Amino acid sequence: MSVDILMPALSPTMEEGTLSKWLVKEGDKVESGDLIAEIETDKATMEVEAIEDGIIGKILVSEGQESIKVNSPIAILLSEGENLSENTISTDSNNEIKKEVQKEVQKNKENVVQINDIKNNDEILKSISENTTKSYFKSDKLERIFVSPLAKRIAKQRDIPLNLIKGSGPHGRILKIDVDNFDIKKIEYPSLNNLESNNFEIVKNSAMRKTIAERLVKSKNEAPHFYLSLDCNIDELLKVRKAINSKSNDEYKISVNDMIIKASSVALLKVPKANASWENENTKYFNNTDISVAVAIEGGLITPIVKNVQSKGLLEISNDMINLASKAKDGKLQPDEYIGGSFSISNLGMYGIKEFSAVINPPQGCILAVGSGEKRPIVINNEISVATIMTVTLSCDHRVVDGAVGAEFLSEFKNLIENPSLMLL
Amino acid sequence: MTDVDYDLIVIGGGPGGYVAAIRASQLGMSVALVEDKHLGGICLNWGCIPTKALLRASEIRHMLDNVDEFGFTVSGIKMDINNITKRSRKVASQLSSGISHLLKKNKIKVFEGFGSLVKVSSNVKKIRIKTKENNIEKTAKNVILATGARSRNLPFVSSDGVNIWDYKTAMTPPKLPSSLIIVGSGAIGMEFASFYNDLGVDTTIVEALPSILPNEDTDISKIVKLNFEKRGIKIKTSSALKSVTTKENSVSAEIITNEKVETINSEKLILAIGIIANTEKLGLEDFNIKIDKGHIVTNEFLETDEKGVYAIGDITDGPWLAHKASHEGVLCVEKIAGHQNLKPIDKTSIPGCTYCRPQVASIGMTETQARSKNLNLKIGKFPFIGNGKAIALGDSEGLIKTIFNKDTGELIGAHMVGPEVTELIQGFSIAKKLETTEHELMHTIFPHPTLSEGIHESVLDAYNQAIHY
């Protein structure tokens, strides 16, 4: 597609200028960034760069031509192999349309919203490019910035771009005081402001949100995460669960999650190297399996701990979980009920999440992310059959848990989930 | 607003007031100026200008005393103090009439009389002018108070114009005294000491603070002290004046130095211990105008708490210098005219000059002040003995000291003592105003051979690149 090269504005107030020199001729191949012409106003001379690769198809204004209106086409850039056809040359009527569109866009200044309202996409692209003729320039050549030597040096020392500073000296010269008073937070980004308008609400971060932020940033910054995923067939587990619950007389209801907690505990006992945490000088291996379980609560989440899972049965685990979750939702957890733990489980299965990777709950070494159990076609003995599959992903802190250890844990876990009776051992 | 006689009335015709009036007229305001004594104020009539005329005479005397060095033999030199003062008065009156002409040219109505503010209910400012004949009242939208200051007396000693001189008598002595005590070693005291010493008067300086020229950098102050003492001027620092007894043709001053009391006798004594602002009888008590430590309080654009009433110059906070008053006059008038982007005066960029021999000039912070701000410094020093022009002039005593902020290269102070340094200091004023760093100063080409090369060398020295030292 051919592109019009437009007369650029050298300054916000420039309306017209002189094309003093062409640096290319028709038929020349140009690359983005190549200088193609020199433009001058009464104030300055600037070089125009090509913003796209292509071939100069037609030069529309001759060298030395004066009073060229800003944004009027000065040349046509063709893509390679394209011929210059009559209709690619800007005609007056074409220009009219373009002006209309441009007017519309400028009137509302909300270019993004406008796009939906204007049918001719081609014209929109052009109109937007006309509004951003700045991109034709090397930005540092765009406008001379008046700045005192001292202000310039201090701005450099503080990494403040001069074009962001408003100068209070004569002719907008940037002075030391302007650099001293510069506040990055007060900078207006007009385009951003236009886009954002007032469609947001500021909510003060709660202490919990800040703690979550701090811990997760710490985790992601310090713990080198790696992830291992595995599909578990839970048909057998569901069968066992159904059997257990059918005998409950509504006194209890064991959840899949309770069984995952138990399976994790048994797997950890079999692979104690995964039941560990990093302590810089030492690695701590836990004797007990204290399983932290992520619980969503108003405004965040918390990980209450089911302690000593290795010595608890499913019923006890289930009761613990019900108790802890209810306390968590009421904000009544005691610190020792959520601080500590040797291993975490985050289960988003109830939301239908197929699989995900969780952020390690420091200083623990692993967290198991549990997806939803869903019927999927699987291949058994070269036959496709249907099974209920649950994908689990183990996030490991590589400082503590190596890939083989994580894999060993996961395979033990899978084995237990798929053969729940082994948990009885 | 109701009809007023003038857009602006300026009370006081010194370097603050008359400059403000002319600037206001340039900006199209109708302006009146009220002056009680003499256009040009103290500066022009009894301060800056006539003392420079006197010091010119004493410099010539010094030169005549040393002409043999230049290959001349002169004999029969006579000196008449009355002719010296006569020339000084002539210079002052020539300039004063020049001011009168300037005001006329700018269509400024001048009232000869004592102006004061009169309380009225409206926003209009009413000024009562007490002339020799009668009282007249004029109204204006805005008023600038520019009534200046006068020399300060001590509770136990006031100038009597006979044995205890104020600046006026000191500028027009009927005859040269044989000996003289000068109390105070600020610019005024130092200039009189230099003048009278060069004319052969036995001179003693009494300064309460530990060093003479207490506002100057200590390196500069030390050089001046050495020079003065070499010339026979007695300097008593950390010395407080306890009492003065006047006899028929002499004074006897009791001075306490380090708890030791000493009596010095001399023919005359000059009090040069600072100034008091002329805030009395201006009718200020009826207005919302604050006075702190004797000086009128204004905002950064010189407006008092009373809207439309401005104060500039010595009547406000220091430094009490004519060029600061003039600059404030222009600034406050442009503020009244509604100019945008005005900048308040940066008090760290007001140069100060003392015209004693050797001359002293400075701008910005002294080394002590800069160190007290815990700034990282780069300090350059260049003595005039390394400057060809100074040696050719036969006047190579002195030093140029420059102080930069090591982190930013900002010129934070420049201090000079030596030949014509009062003419050199403006280079640093411009450098500071334009916010140059050491880089621009180092890459400026200074003409050779000039005293100004010392500026270059001092800057280079701050960065260990001085060539001639």
Report on this structure:
The complex is a heterodimer of chains A (425) and B (469). Chain A has twelve helices and 18 strands. Chain A has 425 residues and is α+β, with helices and mostly antiparallel strands. In chain A, the strands form five sheets. In chain A, strands 9-18-17-16-12-15 form a six-stranded mixed β-sheet. In chain A, strands 1-8-6-3 form a four-stranded antiparallel β-sheet, with no helix packed on it. A four-stranded antiparallel β-sheet of chain A has the order 5-4-2-7, with no helix packed on it. In chain A, helix 1 packs across helix 3. With 469 residues, chain B is α/β, with parallel strands linked by helices. Chain B folds into three domains: 6-150 and 276-336, FAD/NAD(P)-binding domain (3-Layer(bba) Sandwich), CATH 3.50.50; 164-273, 3-Layer(bba) Sandwich (FAD/NAD(P)-binding domain), CATH 3.50.50.60; 358-462, Enolase-like, domain 1 (2-Layer Sandwich), CATH 3.30.390. Helix content of chain B is 31%, strand content 26%. Chain B is built from 13 helices and 24 strands. In chain B, the strands form six sheets. In chain B, strands 1, 2, 3, 4, 5, 6 and 19 form a seven-stranded mixed β-sheet that branches. In chain B, strand 12 and strand 13 (251-257) form a beta hairpin. Chains A and B meet through helix 4 of A and loops of B.
